[in-house]
Amino acid sequence: MLHEIVWGPWTMFLFLGTGLFFTVKSGGFQIRKLPYWWKKTVGSLGNGSVSSFQTSCTALAATIGTGNIVGVATALTAGGPGAVFWLWISALIGMATAYAETSLGQKYRYRGPDGAWQCGPMVSMERGLGCRSMGLIYALFAVLASLGMGSMVQANAVSETLRYEAGMKTEIVAALVTALTAAVVWGGIRRISRMASWFVPLSAGIYFLFSVWVLAVCRRRIPAVLLQIVKEAWTPGAAGGGIAGFLFSRNVRFGLARGVFSNEAGLGTLAVLHGAAEDTGPEEQGMWAMFEVFFDTNVICTLTALVILCVGGAPGLDGAALTSFCFTKILGSFGGILVSGSMAVFAFATIIAWYYIGRQMFSYLAEHLCPGADIEYLYTVLYLLAVWLGCVCRLELVWIVSDLVNGLMAYPNLLSLWLLAEHVRFPRTEIADEEK
């Protein structure tokens, strides 16, 4: 009953409504000023101790996930080829939400007792709205989410993949994944950022190249497929399939395997991941957040969709099985290995990124509820334990609880965005002025 209340149909409209509001408020900034924000992000890297590029890669580690493989197939199954068009529209709307929550996080961030930046929706709620209790509630939900969908569910995805594809024993996989996670997270945000700055481009790049390989083989079908996407976008079910596919896909990335309607743009986690960037400002980091949503959905998800549509699916297949079938049909057995390997790599990257999110939230709770107590290492131990349990346990209940907590995170974040909307500033500088 509680799950139905939290994830009723109004939730999807709340996400999309928030994005539409900020799209109108900005005058369609994410579309009209694409050359400007592209130049400010991809075309210009930060020089701080934790650069904007490294921070963006850390955020992409959380956003590029198994949903790029599973969620797209779900969208196509639910709404047909026309769903891809609405997948793009939903992503464009979500870019405005991502900008708003990330720029607000930068506006209100502060140095914690340990000298590190404390940033995220909980800080905006405390310092922008003057409602610390709301921030504490959000932080608590985020900690629970990190231990569930951020670690256990993702670790389970890695474990299942290695067990079936490589024949590894569950206990060995658990020890390996836990050890690799520990080796990265004990180094803090700098090691996480350094790992993400080469790990994410490499893994996404490999998936990108092999997707292009498949499309090159099927290049004669691409024009017809693109025309089909546009024509069928206006058929009944296409919009619902595309929107649901986008929202669903961005949650499967966090391990929510069924019945989920949520996305990264709206949860507030992007603001947390961008908090560590040095020598930057709200507008710059907001534009990086827009780029992440764009790259994740309009690039990676689009490639997956085109592969499926150009190759042609198989009756009865959905999700990862459908995507794997299409790659295997062109690349042979290597195609199935590629899809499985990509899912494992993407899931591990999500584990690393969600550790940082959860640790920041735990630090915020400790700062206000147990001032002076040095208990942050407790979270690291709990997180590593969750990773290990995720590899060896069945997670039906964890999926359900994570789904619920995910929704409980979104509501206070979206409410704070509406209440602080007047403080969201979009760049007004014209491209021509920049070129001068």
Automatic annotation (TrEMBL):
Its main location: membrane. InterPro entries: Na/Ala_symport. The keyword Cytoplasm does not apply. It is a multi-pass membrane protein. Keywords: Cell membrane, Membrane, Symport, Transmembrane, Transmembrane helix, Transport. The chain crosses the membrane at residues 6-24, 83-100, 135-158, 170-189, 195-218, 293-314, 334-357, 377-401. It is found in: Cell membrane. Belongs to the alanine or glycine:cation symporter (AGCS) (TC 2.A.25) family. This is Amino acid carrier protein.
